[in-house]
Amino acid sequence: MDGQIAGFDLNKVGADFIENPYPTLHALRREAPVHENPDGSVFLTRFADVQKVYQSRDMLSDKTEAFGEKFGKCPLGHHHTTSLVFNDPPYHTTVRRLISGAFTPRKLAEFEPLIDQIVDRLLDRVGAMGRFDMIEDFAKVLPTEIISFMLGIPDDLRPKLRGYSLAILGALDPEVPPERMAEGNAAVEEFAAILDDLITHRRANPEGAAQGEVLEALIFGEHDGRRLTQDELIQNCIFLLNAGHETTTSLVGNAVGTLLDNPDQHRRLIDDPGLITSAIEEFLRVESPLQIGNRLAGEDIELLDRVIPKGTYIHTSIAAANRDPAQFPNPDRVDLGRSPNRQIAFITGIHVCLGATLARIEGRIAIGKLVGRFPELRADGPRTRLPLARFRGFTALPVAIT
Ligand code: HEM
Fold it and tell me: Cα of 346 to ligand 1 centre, how many Å?
């Protein structure tokens, strides 16, 4: 890999990179840690640089200009430029404050019994199946149920959510073929129509909310005397639903993939279930579900020995930062007891993942119970990867437990 990295173009990565990006990321970190892509954007692979960008208030998330060029005027462009994650203060602050009330540790603790219950039910079902798909039959069900519960999405709509989510988030990849763009636009439109009805109904019946506390907070909450408009509500609910389940599905799927590839660590977790909390941190580090982030330099920024000028697009490799040997000794080695482990799968700074605590709880309960109940878990056929560079996970992961 050494010496071949000068021509690397993040906008044109191939299937090999998607299958296993780590050798390329290590080579970039060694040879060109502040790598310039042919389009003038830079790609960062050192932990220190990625962290510096996330912690600077001058590095902006607003994507109006970039997405204007990428999407033009279409539902996808409108959705992504309205969600909190691609905005800066003050709009970002307003939406974040409204959502964060529903994600306090106390509120989340209330979800633990529900998560326990859903996981037990799923494990009973896969236990009876004997052979099953870890993604379809287990990993994707739990986060969809939880986030749908939080937003009050009716049962019959829940199975559609992952399709919408993949279509909408998939359009964020550096290169998007026209058919994928069309799928993404259709998904935003369908999803928005469903939420429009749901929000209108909830507005008219505020007292009828047995579920969906987050939706209540968003509809009726105010920050600095401002409420969200119906459109802002719809777009941020779409984002929350997507953010809340695709990445968590990957956390669980990637954790299982990692255990199957590292039988010594699998055995270690079976023998010492108390390792589960640090194991989740290690799964997040070695196979980060969200691999690449972006910021726009709102001011010049010094990275390594270079000044990156204001106006430059910066791509942050979360995956490479989490395997930087300067931060994590022996970074490619999976060590479920790794300590310290200051992985940044949820990033740092003002956009730090709002669902990090929830995702950790879901991961801990799902993987902890799965490993405890089915120690004989093994691979049962070839896996299929999500065909995306930005998100790392599987679309199929066949396993057997008998
Ligand atoms: C393992 C699972 C998850 C991972 C790896 C993950 C990762 C991330 C990352 C890296 C960001 C920052 C994006 C950026 O600014 O560039 C983010 C933001 C966000 N995440 Fe998560 N996430 C996960 C689960 C969740 C869950 C379960 C929820 C909600 C139920 C959630 C809600 C959010 C929200 C609302 C933001 C936007 C925060 C803001 O812009 O201020 N995430 N997540």
Answer: 6
pLDDT band for position 212 (cuts 50, 70, 90): low
The mean pLDDT value for 78-99 works out to 94
Rounded to the nearest angstrom, the distance between the alpha carbon of 54 and the centre of ligand 1 is 14
Edge-to-edge strands of the sheet including 313-317? Answer: 34-36, 42-44, 313-317, 292-297, 59-60
Give the CATH number of domain 36-333+341-400.
Answer: 1.10.630.10
Is residue 358 within 8 Å of residue 108, measured between CB atoms?
yes
From ligand 1's centre to the CA of 128, what distance in Å? 34
Residue 108 has pLDDT above 80, yes or no: yes
- Give me ligand 1 centre to Cα 351, in Å: 8
Which is it for strands 131-133 and 398-400: parallel, antiparallel or unpaired? antiparallel
Q: Which two tokens stand for residue 355?
A: 């669902």
Tell whether the model's pLDDT for residue 258 goes beyond 90: yes
Q: What is the pLDDT of residues 267-295, one digit of tens each?
A: 999 999 999 999 999 999 999 999 999 99
- The answer to whether the CB of 43 falls within 8 A of the CB of 37 is yes
The alpha carbon of 290 and the centre of ligand 1 are apart by a number of angstroms equal to 9
Question: Looking at residues 286-314, what average pLDDT do you find?
Answer: 96
DSSP-derived 3-state class of residue 317: strand
Domain boundaries along the sequence of the chain: 36-333+341-400
Dig out the tokens for 350 from the structure. Answer: 């003002």
pLDDT confidence band for 158 (50 / 70 / 90): confident
Distance of alpha carbon 262 from alpha carbon 29, whole angstroms: 25
Smallest Cα–Cα separation from 94: which of 84, 102, 103?
A: 84
Q: Measured from the CA of 245, which atom of ligand 1 is nearest?
A: 27
Q: Which atom of ligand 1 is the closest one to the Cα of 87? A: 40
- Ligand 1 pocket test, pick from 353, 357, 358, 386 with the greatest ligand atom count within 8 Å of Cβ, gives 353
Cα torsion angle, 201, 238, 126, 372, sign: negative
- For residues 135 and 115, give the distance between their C-alpha atoms in angstroms, rounded to a whole number: 17
Ligand 1 atom showing the smallest separation from residue 362 Cα = 27
Q: Does 213 have pLDDT greater than 80?
A: no
